[in-house]
Design goal:
The protein is α/β, with parallel strands linked by helices. The chain contains 8 helices and 11 strands. The strands form 3 sheets. It has a 5-stranded parallel beta sheet, sandwiched between helices. A 4-stranded antiparallel beta sheet has the order 6-7-8-9, with helices on one face. Strands 10-11 form a two-stranded antiparallel ribbon. Helix 1 packs across helix 5 and helix 6 packs across helix 7. The longest helix is centred in the middle third of the chain and has 19 residues.
Length: 229
């Protein structure tokens, strides 16, 4: 079955251009011009990935991404932000809203398909991750869920991969570059600052169960995950 990709953009010309590229990449494109149409498409069938424009009528792409990350139906769906805003602070804001990657307009079909394949590949790799327990923290690999004791911990797809790597490689310091290689993949260009953003998001997710200190900053070196805080 073809992977279904939801294109959320209020410009029909961009949606048509992206849809053409997706069909050439053997994906099934679905169009939405605003948040209402996007939600209707998701209710009809949850997509395998969402391409989300930053600027939308009525609600920004950032707010929509945050909403979907809180929704159990869409929590694990990878999101790539399409944006004309290329400044670092804008990109960081996008990542902090819960998106997994971003593509700056104007972009080529080749670049877009490469980003989609990279995110899809990382999502598939998650399907084969096993269960692991460190202290009170537990990943149920089969259910793709995280628990602190009996309390569920809600994270996005990238934080899930990051936490799984940490929990299977405890008490060792990893540089940002090493984390990018292991979690994002060595053949994908992502800025080192991206690691810091996802570390903050992971810690925030662990705060309600008071486990955020398990993700430790080692000044001048990188990050370490340990049950000994």
């Amino acid at each position: 079955m073809q992977k279904r990709i939801l294109i959320v953009d209020d410009e029909p010309a961009i949606r048509d251009m992206v849809a053409f590229a997706l069909r050439k990449g053997d994906y099934e494109p679905v169009h939405a011009g605003d948040a209402r149409e996007a939600q209707s498409a998701i209710t009809d069938r949850v997509p395998d990935l969402i391409l989300l424009d930053w600027m939308l009528p009525g609600i920004s792409g950032l707010d929509l991404a945050r909403r979907w990350r809180r929704d159990e139906l869409t929590r694990d769906v990878p999101i790539i932000m399409l944006t004309a805003r290329g400044e670092e602070n804008d990109r960081v804001s996008g990542l902090e809203s819960g998106v997994d990657d971003y593509v700056v307009k104007p972009f080529s079909a080749r670049e877009l398909l490469a980003r989609i394949k990279a995110v899809m590949r990382r999502s598939r790799e998650d399907d084969h991750d096993g269960s692991v327990t460190v202290g009170r923290l537990r990943i149920d690999g089969a259910a793709h869920r995280i628990f602190a004791g009996d309390m569920p911990v809600h994270v996005g797809p990238t934080e899930y991969r990051l936490l799984h790597f940490f929990m299977t490689h405890t008490d060792r310091v990893y540089t940002r570059t090493q984390l990018l290689d292991h979690v994002w993949g060595g053949n994908v260009y992502v800025e080192e600052r991206t690691v810091d953003v996802h570390i903050r998001r992971l810690r925030k997710a662990l705060e309600p169960c008071q486990l955020e200190d398990m993700v430790q900053t080692v000044r001048g070196a990188g990050y370490r995950f340990s049950a000994s805080t």
